[in-house]
Amino acid sequence: MINDFIYDIPVRVYFGKDQLKHLGEELKKYGTRVLMTYGGGSIKRMGLYDKVVKEIQDAGLELFELSGIEPNPRIDSVRKGAQMCKEHHIDVLLAVGGGSTIDATKFMAAGACVDHDPWEFLDYSKQAPIERALPIVTILTLSATGSEMDCGGVISNPETKDKNGRLAPAMLPKASFLDPTNTFTVSPYQTACGAADMMSHIIEVYFNMNQDLYMLDCFMEGLMKTIIKYAPIAMREPDNYEARANLMWTSSWAINGFVDGGKRQAWSCHPMEHELSAIYDITHGLGLAILTPRWMEYCLDETTVSKYVQFGVNVFGIDPSLEPMEIAHKAIDCLSNFLFNDLGLKRTLPEVGIDETHFATMAMKSVGGDTLPGFKPLKQEDVENIFKMCMK
Predict the structure, then answer these.
(1) Which of the two ends of the chain, N or C, has the fewest CB atoms closer than 10 A to its terminal CB?
(2) Spatial separation of the C-alpha atoms in residues 240 and 59, rounded to whole Å
(3) Residue 359 to residue 301: CA distance in whole angstroms
(4) Exposed, middle or buried: residue 177 (CB in 10 Å: 0-12, 13-18, 19+)?
(5) Tens of pLDDT, residues 241-282
(6) How far is it, in rounded angstroms, from Cα 110 to Cα 314?
């Protein structure tokens, strides 16, 4: 049965090279005091910082800044931003960066509206409600997480070794500026990790044995083929506008809710990867690249093989006349070849400094102490087995 669903993503997107001229008018809709958040110095080296500051000043707005937001953003950065919002009576937050900056900014915006510690939003034992957030505008500099067009975010807590996510409509950006030229300086490695992240977002939804809208499966297959085509081009030719534009728009549509189509199943690889990067602080997309083919192999059986056949034939062009199991294994091999050869990402956990020490704890937290109700339900033992498959 195809499920009912509601689709509502009221994010105004300014896509293209010359859209920053609209930044001032967008910010002014929400007030006059702006907190701009960003990570390291890359936006200054590429000249984006100066352009943004000029637009803000020309609009007559008062600017405050918070820099140094980390990859796998930390709760301390969220706390600092929420406190700045309160102290300076901030009206609107402007996140300039990739998913880490945008995720952290979302929880700053929510944290500014409550008296409690922002971690209570993300502590699964408390799940404090997120009813309000200050308005958020984003300027994207890395195609990967899709945070510029969704209402979710993931934050790490080094003290508890947790990396938790949360969705809340109040944290949906009001507007996002997507200029592919702002991703020209992204390194080949980060481009590859971003591509792996996008692929995982789609695969987590696509691999589903429930009856789906055929139209959405076709759409997801097109998104995956777009990533496979353009990510290697962007790595070789970082200033290729066509490649960067296709990746940027794909990253948004991979996770803005459109492809879900009322699906109910939980994601599988993301909870597992969050435990890896919570302890080892590895790049999120890299962890997903290592996990995804092993998870696919682990979940393959006679009850699930039809989805692998659809994936292999429609995304990778595998001969449909072959036996279903042969197609399925070839499909996994094709995905592995893309991730580890075309993108050049590390293939195993030992290559990124991870051993089996924490597998039991990570697996237990991945399944929430019970069962992860994903494409194929996984218990702690199953997740441990998948982690072990990633060792070689």
Answers:
(1) N
(2) 32
(3) 24
(4) buried
(5) 999 999 999 999 999 999 999 888 899 999 999 999 999 999
(6) 41
